[in-house]
Amino acid sequence: MFEIVEKRELAHRVCLFRIRAPLIARKRRAGQFIILRINEHGERIPLTIADSDSEEGTITIIVQEVGKTTSVLCSLKAGDRLLDVVGPLGKPTHIENYGTAVCVGGGIGCAVTYPIAKALKETGTHVISIMGARTKNLLILEEEMRSVSDELFIATDDGSYGHHGFVTAVLEELIGEGRKIDVVIAVGPVPMMKAVSSVTRTNGIYTMASLNPIMVDGTGMCGACRVTVDGQTKFVCVDGPEFDAHQVDFDELIRRNRTYLKEERIAMEELTYHEGPRCYEKKGV
Q1: Does 215 lie in the same domain as 110?
Q2: SS3 for 183?
Q3: 47 and 149 in one domain?
Q4: Tens digits of residue pLDDT in 213-271
Q5: How buried is 262 (Cβ within 10 angstroms: 0-12 exposed, 13-18 middle, 19+ buried)?
Q6: Residues with Cβ < 8 Å from 168, sequence gap 6 or more?
Q7: Residue 60 belongs to domain spanning
Q8: How far apart are CA 230 and CA 233, in angstroms?
Q9: Which of 206, 208, 199, 143 is nearest to 166 (CA)?
Q10: pTM score, two decimals?
Q11: Are residues 53 and 114 both part of a single domain?
């Protein structure tokens, strides 16, 4: 059993958890993830390791309520325990002094860009971070990203904070200024990563995307997380999660991520949501 030692809310329906997992905390590197299971009846879900403390033996994950399992997870509190936490999984981000790197994080994707930007900063790379959210109230990890970035730009869809518009507009503006950009790392909703890839392909800038497909076992055996990269089938859990964005078939990934929308909706209907103190009552589980 894995104890939750801290839980706090970062934004509406976005929670940060610190979990006691000393073996994972000692081994994890930027870009890697875990798969957790809340209880014996729960599904296994992948979540990126946003940070770790090897001395305390804790890892940090950030969870957005988007379905049944994440909703139940976000109803837990400090002192509660998780049945399974497996990791670190996936290949770590390749970290070197690139010269200048632009880290683009959209929404909950900022939880992934933070450890990557932090690791790049430690190599001496000039880190430019672009954070995006639908609205100011949904922006997470601003101060953390500011602390590991040489430059930080923020974009909100509704213009409530920073640039009014998408992260791609900020990226295009930087490129238009003649900035020398050696690598771009994009993490966030698939359409956002696809749009970033389109901008950088046009300008000949190497780009990595951290993919977020449906995933089950995390060991490459089930095949649920398969994606097409440069015309070949890859498994995100063992071959990724990061790939050359210009070689990823994003349209296929979008289609595959919609496979279980009906089942996800039914699962959510099994939960009775009570306003006030957050409470999720499992039905028929």
Answers
A1: yes
A2: strand
A3: no
A4: 989 888 888 889 999 999 999 999 999 999 999 999 999 999 998 887 787 887 777 76
A5: exposed
A6: 192, 195, 196, 199
A7: 2-89+263-282
A8: 8
A9: 199
A10: 0.88
A11: no
